[in-house]
């Protein structure tokens, strides 16, 4: 059995480099990939418990995963969902080195590499036609806006014959409890207020939260995350109250989600600035 370090060094050598995204990677893919498959991993809980540099005086809060067994020892306010939904990207062998360099910034931000089985969503339907060239393929993703009303099947961006039928081992970045930017359990109202007032080079922290919720809901009919949805509801309520909307009206505003288009990062430099 390879050590963790050996696995980090050799992972993906058989054209099987799969990267799992559960945060911004869902809507902001790595610079090169030839398949994007919605699905889930198990044994973790997603939480907005990772401090992100944002502006020094107001570091934002971004998602990390907590090992479920460890999470069960903590005093958390939110329940857990059985699965952590996200998107897995297959990176062509010729691009692995480049993508790994691009991903390194995550480690600087307190995230560590872990490996875990990824389960493609059941009932997947391919909606893409084979790409004319590897670089044309990602554009398919950005030009396509899956409709929120279509939930019976899951959209994937992959050649139908290439969608993995069983689980695949994937690499995932996790802000472990030992890292200095890991915050631990947060009061949900305080967390929502903090997200609302935080801004980073990439924009408002709340946009990260709102985009995460929206992208999750587009993955599958089962892919919502109660922690994320609850935070969105709190943020929308606080925003509505700030805008002078009161009582029932604030509740209605909080549940009316405005769609935001998928965002493509302009450059590696920008990516490094915005990475979360
Ligand atoms: C992601 O899965 O989207 C992600 C995880 C850790 C750092 C940055 C992004």
Automatic annotation (TrEMBL):
GO biological process, alphabetically ordered: glutathione catabolic process
UniProt KW keywords: Lyase
Organism domain of life: Eukaryota
Region: Disordered, residue numbers: 252-276
Keyword Metal-binding belongs to the record: no
Alphabetized CDD domains for the sequence: GGCT_like
EC numbers, comma separated: 4.3.2.7
GO cellular component term, pick one: cytoplasm
Listed GO MF terms: glutathione specific gamma-glutamylcyclotransferase activity
InterPro entries with a match to the protein in the record: ChaC, GGCT-like
Classification via PANTHER family: CATION TRANSPORT PROTEIN CHAC-RELATED (PTHR12192), GLUTATHIONE-SPECIFIC GAMMA-GLUTAMYLCYCLOTRANSFERASE 2 (PTHR12192:SF2)
Protein name as catalogued: glutathione-specific gamma-glutamylcyclotransferase
